[in-house]
Amino acid sequence: MEKESYYKTRLRSKGQITIPRMLREKLGIGEGDDVVFYENEQGQFVVEAGRIIPPDQAWFWTERWQKMEREVQVELEAGRVNQFEDVETAISALNAAADAED
Questions:
Q1: Domain count along the chain
Q2: Is the pLDDT of residue 3 over 60?
């Protein structure tokens, strides 16, 4: 095993450990940050930086929503967008597009 491929620490009283500096840097964590430990499907324990997402915003970070965000970004960058003067005009255009698909 390569020296850089693993990190060792010692369990202290009250279950405390010190996360080695290089690992803290790789995880992008510092004092006061949350750290998450979980077991993956292969039975390995994984350590990640804990990013707290407010429950009312969790939908935005789902894989499905992030995929749609990436798709929209591609459309925006390609200039495939429509702009409308007001909401009523936008709704009319959407209704016309839906009727054309039927």
A1: 2
A2: no
